[in-house]
Amino acid sequence: MNRSRHRMKKLARRTPSGRTSLLTKNKKPKQAHCALCRKTLGGVPRESRSGMRKLSQTQRRPERSFGGVLCANCTANVIKTRTRLQSGVADESLVPLTVMKYVKMLKA
Ligand SMILES: [Zn+2]
């Protein structure tokens, strides 16, 4: 199937002459999901690339670390893990690699 056609949403519209015609509109992208738990992210609008450009930077994603990438729970988890590793309470071998990736990003 043609990729550009697939993105189109078909809507039936009654014209002034009484005829029904199909109106096609671009489909909106799917809701953003957390990279760790796949939960849908709040504060991230379902806008196309051009629609996103019309918004201000702070309207595109939450303005916190990992905003628009991780959900609030996972972000808290990553920050807690970082602190536990730094203070030596936790061991690096016990932290899942998927979480470790974001912990290392925080350090830098
Ligand atoms: Zn999450």
Write structural notes for this entry:
With 108 residues, the chain is α+β, with helices and mostly antiparallel strands. The chain has one domain (31-107). 37% of the residues lie in helices and 13% in strands. It contains five helices and two strands; from the N terminus they run αββαααα. The protein has a two-stranded antiparallel sheet. The N and C termini lie far apart (44 Å). Bound molecules: zinc ion (ZN). Zinc ion binds at residues 34, 36-37, 39, 70-71, 73-74. The site of zinc ion has 8 residues, from helix 4.
Please provide a brief summary of the model.
With 108 residues, this protein is an alpha+beta fold.
Give structural attributes:
single chain, 108 residues, alpha+beta, two-stranded antiparallel ribbon, 5 helices, 37% helix, binds zinc ion
What spatial order of strands do you see in the largest sheet? 1-2
- Determine the fraction of residues in helical runs and give it as a percent range: 25-40%
Ranges where pLDDT stays below 50 over 5 or more residues in a row are none
For the secondary structure, the number of strands is 2
Cα(first) to Cα(last) distance is 44 Å
Summed up, the domain count is: 1
- Beta-sheet strand percentage? 5-15%
Average pLDDT works out at: 91
Count, helices: 5
Order of helices and strands: HEEHHHH
- Gyration radius, rounded: 21 Å
What kind of sheet is the major sheet? 2 strands, antiparallel
Bound molecules: zinc ion
Structural class: alpha+beta
* Shape, principal axes of CA atoms: elongated
